[in-house]
Design brief:
This protein has about 70 residues and is an alpha+beta fold. It has helices at about 10-20, 30-35, 55-65; strands at about 1-5, 25-30, 45-50. Strands 1-3-2 form a 3-stranded antiparallel beta sheet. The longest helix is centred in the N-terminal third of the chain and has 13 residues, at about 10-20. It is globular.
């Protein structure tokens, strides 16, 4: 798995998850529990992970949605 996106913006994360769902790309959202433990203040970013095989497709999806600047480049 590779990190596609890291953010503490719940709306952005939800939107990207919906984009990935719509395109059939599986993902994992990591660090949500840590965000809750810190009091749900939104200080700790959550990481959205996709498989190595889907990374280019997922990045292209973000680019097409105008969110390319949010994608982590590795």
């Amino acid at each position: 798995m590779i990190e596609l996106l890291r953010s503490n913006d719940a709306v952005l994360l939800s939107y990207v998850q919906n984009l990935l769902d719509g395109d059939g790309i599986e993902y994992l959202l990591l660090d949500s529990h840590m965000s809750i433990m810190e009091g749900s203040l939104g200080i700790l970013p959550r990481r959205l992970m996709v498989s190595e095989d889907d990374k280019m497709r997922a990045r292209r999806l973000l680019e097409n949605a105008g969110l390319g600047d949010h994608a982590i480049r590795s």
